[in-house]
Amino acid sequence: MARTARKTEQDELSGLDRLRDELVDYLGAQVERLADVAGDKVEGLTDQLLDVAENGGVLPKVGARVLQGDSPIKALLGEKAKSIKDSVTEKASSLFGGGKGRKSGTPKVTNIIEHLDVGVPVRVAYDHWTRFEKFSSFTKGVRSVSQGDETSSDWKVKVGPSTRSWKATVQEQIPDERIMWTSDGAKGSTRGCVSFHELTPTLTHIVLVVEYYPSGFFEKTGNLWRAQGRRLRLDAKNFQRYVTLSDEDADGWRGEIRDGEVVRTHEEALEEEEADYEEEEPEEEFDEDEEEAPEGEYEDEEEEGEEEYEDEDEGEEA
């Protein structure tokens, strides 16, 4: 009985010893972790002090603001916010072309080239393209277009979640051949050319070349992912679909522009086309007269043959 009691007491003591040892180990580990954290804090503070000694850092500016009457918390938060802003600005400048290795004032350009074939004659494809005010009805990127005069137009296009305004100017326009333009806006500019090439009488090949210079935040962000190029290619395909399936007669602008100036108006071009058409008609009538001439000659020959036959009959009767 006594042995059993002593054994139980020893077991309880050994259990307490194990618990105490585990507790000591746990406390030791926690103290070691706290020491490491404290060491890191001291190291970070040392780095900040070195930064102050070498580069000035934020602390002197905070002290200067405190001496001027600002509260320590307000001064610290203000200088920290300014430091973060400067850091973000520097990163953004390097990201969007203002960093090292790029001259200031040299914008980054995006080149966009697209080819498409449209199953209509060249004149039909060209006339549809000159109807700028219709673009918003079949494209996704164009919100609206208002025609100012023969050479200028105002465009509102979709860029990300925003709408941008552009002023476009036609620099060269030759009917059924090509259109060259430039456009300027608050958030970017473009320069482009579209040309029309006849493959067959009912098939036209169109080449679209655009240089895009983004300058806004959404524009530059979208430019990283080539969003503008994809949008332009999609709208080119929308133009292809619209023109191919359209059954309305396109009444396009037939004038001519050189160096940004109108050298032939739409009315003058239509008058010249009508005059050329009228000049071709007499030639066709003359050809018909020539074709009818042999029939007349044949009739004359028949009449002469009949007269000779009658003269021979009279001679025999005599």
TrEMBL record:
<feature type="compositionally biased region" description="Acidic residues">
    <location>
        <begin position="269"/>
        <end position="318"/>
    </location>
</feature>
<dbReference type="Pfam" id="PF03364">
    <property type="entry name" value="Polyketide_cyc"/>
</dbReference>
<dbReference type="InterPro" id="IPR023393">
    <property type="entry name" value="START-like_dom_sf"/>
</dbReference>
<feature type="domain" description="Coenzyme Q-binding protein COQ10 START">
    <location>
        <begin position="118"/>
        <end position="239"/>
    </location>
</feature>
<dbReference type="InterPro" id="IPR005031">
    <property type="entry name" value="COQ10_START"/>
</dbReference>
<feature type="region of interest" description="Disordered">
    <location>
        <begin position="265"/>
        <end position="318"/>
    </location>
</feature>
<protein>
    <recommendedName>
        <fullName>Coenzyme Q-binding protein COQ10 START domain-containing protein</fullName>
    </recommendedName>
</protein>
<dbReference type="InterPro" id="IPR047137">
    <property type="entry name" value="ORF3"/>
</dbReference>
